[in-house]
């Protein structure tokens, strides 16, 4: 009798009763998992969703229908989990992956970075936001393999003895550009051609200058050098890039934290 009064015996007896219940019912779930509570916040959420869709509050019958549907979905959701239907489903896997990334990023995300933070980002990435140089220029296309008399033609152009049209080869490129940004010139002539322009003097024919099409003589008639912009002029672009970088940083940190908890083995890897 004294043994029956021991707390340890009571604890073991209770554990055996719970085990017996699971064994008898064939369930591996805690009975509390079968309790569904629709609280005031749930009802408010259902009402808000209805108003957003129909622009009016639901009637009592409509609200009762929403609640019944919520209960039905919750029951089927739990039963699907009990049967393991969420496993090995690529669509569900991808959806949960996306939601976890979103939640991790939102946890520490800063929605309104200060001007000081954005200015530092701008200072750390000057080339990305630098305002392009602007050019007025003329070009003469010489073809892919200019003749050996090219240098003589260049002298003639600079001395006014040779007219550009007399040596220009046919091609579907503009002979003149006015107020053209470096990015526009790059799209039309290629990066190599646009990069060379920054080294050329203003007011003289120079070349040959190589493009994606061949060789050119080029005369820059006016140039506005590029410069670093003020934050107010590129604030939105800087903010977008800063946010993207913070999101990537938070995601990497969260994944690193999770990965350290797993013992990962891959066939073929040491």
Question: Can you describe this structure?
Answer:
It is a single chain. By secondary structure, the protein is α+β, with helices and mostly antiparallel strands. The protein folds into three domains: 1-32; 88-130 and 229-270, no CATH class; 132-224, Chitinase A, domain 3, CATH 3.10.50. It contains eleven helices and four strands, in the order H-H-H-H-H-H-E-H-H-E-H-H-E-E-H. It has helices spanning 7-25, 40-54, 60-82, 90-108, 115-124, 126-129, 150-159, 164-167, 182-189, 191-197, 231-259, and strands at residues 134-143, 176-181, 205-210, 215-224. It has a four-stranded antiparallel β-sheet. The chain is elongated.
Distance between the termini: 60 Å
Task: Please state how the strands of the largest beta sheet are arranged side by side.
Answer: 2-1-4-3
* Helical segment count: 11
| Total of domains | 3
CATH class of the largest domain: Alpha Beta
Order of helices and strands: HHHHHHEHHEHHEEH
């Amino acid at each position: 009798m004294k043994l029956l009064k021991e707390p340890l015996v009571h604890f073991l007896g209770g554990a055996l009763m719970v085990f017996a219940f699971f064994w008898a019912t064939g369930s591996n779930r805690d009975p509390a998992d079968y309790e569904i509570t629709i609280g005031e916040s749930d009802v408010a959420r259902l009402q808000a969703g209805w108003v957003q869709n129909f622009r009016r509050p639901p009637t009592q019958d409509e609200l009762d229908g929403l609640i019944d549907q919520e209960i039905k979905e919750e029951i089927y959701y739990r039963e699907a989990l009990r049967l393991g239907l969420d496993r090995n489903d690529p669509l569900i896997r991808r959806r949960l992956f996306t939601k976890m990334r979103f939640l991790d990023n939102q946890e520490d995300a800063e929605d309104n970075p200060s001007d000081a933070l954005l200015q530092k980002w701008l200072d750390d990435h000057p080339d990305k936001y630098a305002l392009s140089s602007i050019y007025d220029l003329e070009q003469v296309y010489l073809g892919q393999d200019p003749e050996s008399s090219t240098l003589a033609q260049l002298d003639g152009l600079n001395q006014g003895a040779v007219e550009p049209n007399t040596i220009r080869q046919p091609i579907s490129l503009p002979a003149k550009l006015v107020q053209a940004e470096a990015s526009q010139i790059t799209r039309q002539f290629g990066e190599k051609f646009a990069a060379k322009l920054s080294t050329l003097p203003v007011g003289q024919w120079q070349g040959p200058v190589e493009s994606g099409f061949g060789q050119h003589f080029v005369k820059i008639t006016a140039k506005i050098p590029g410069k670093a912009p003020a934050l107010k002029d590129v604030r939105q672009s800087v903010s977008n890039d800063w946010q993207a970088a913070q999101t990537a940083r938070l995601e990497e940190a969260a994944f690193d934290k999770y990965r350290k908890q797993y013992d990962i083995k891959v066939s073929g890897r040491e």
